Amino acid sequence: xxxxxxxxxxxxxxxxxxxxxxxxxxxxxxxxxxxxxxxxxxxxxxxxxxxxxxxxxxxxxxxxxxxxxxxxxxxxxxxxxxxxxxxxxxxxxxxxxxxxxxxxxxxxxxxxxxxxxxxxxxxxxxxxxxxxxxxxxxxxxxxxxxxxxxxxxxxxxxxxxxxxxxxxxxxxxxxxxxxxxxxxxxxxxxxxxxxxxxxxxxxxxxxxxxxxxxxxxxxxxxxxxxxxxxxxxxxxxxxxxxxxxxxxxxxxxxxxxxxxxxxxxxxxxxxxxxxxxxxxxxxxxxxxxxxxxxxxxxxxxxxxxxxxxxxxxxxxxxxxxxxxxxxxxxxx
Length: 332
Description:
Order of helices and strands: HEEEHEHEHEEHEHEHEHHEHEHEHHE
Largest sheet: 7 strands, mixed
Radius of gyration: 26 Å
Strand order of the largest sheet: 9-8-10-11-12-13-14
Structural class: alpha/beta
Number of helices: 13
CATH class of the largest domain: Alpha Beta
Strand content: 15-25%
Distance between the termini: 99 Å
């Protein structure tokens, strides 16, 4: 074989190899599945056959399937400890999640103290996002935080008013709260109590095991009712909380309708399940390229009055017809 022919063959072979490498280099890489960090003191979102949680419902509504097109990395603490929440927030950041979802003001504080770059979506029913510096405005937050906030202080007054309607002679009300949560609702309750001429007995707990002792302190303090300040931990322990209050003959008022479903007497506030489902829309917009600072912060606009007549009967509380007529939900 002539040398020219050999060189031509080698040249052709080399060209084929290079072309093959180029085509291999140009082949699209598989797209990484987005990872969502989730921080709460309640329960980790889970999907059970036939009964998906509200977070999954919201994600599904936007076309996501957990485990296939999206994954969730959850961190959970049953202790109201800011330091522990920061440790868990750092774990999520170190895991290089694409978005962090925080449930509660405690989670919001922990996450935002550690990152100003990772997109953060929260459901926070205590914090004023503008006054706290988390957002420049509700319409254009400007930073890395968006979501659903409720700092409507008048709701504390509404719940105290309903207590007075159900128990007209009550002069002392215990306020049961999670010690790690934002104190804004407690300050609002104090202002409302002064207007209504009601004394408040503040009872803050850091662990669910302290609920029984706190309620016993309410009995010793001659509280005529208990107002429960919501938190994920309180909601998770709602059935036990309702049982303990019923044992101690304490009428109770909460914020969320789920509180009444669990056995509490009355509630006035938003439906937290609706809020959790709505998280999917925030996550969807950010995964599609929106900056959290451009996604408007939302506030709940629908509030529900719910009453448990079975609990009322067990406590010997007569629900006035006027209150019953205003109720959006009545459990018999």
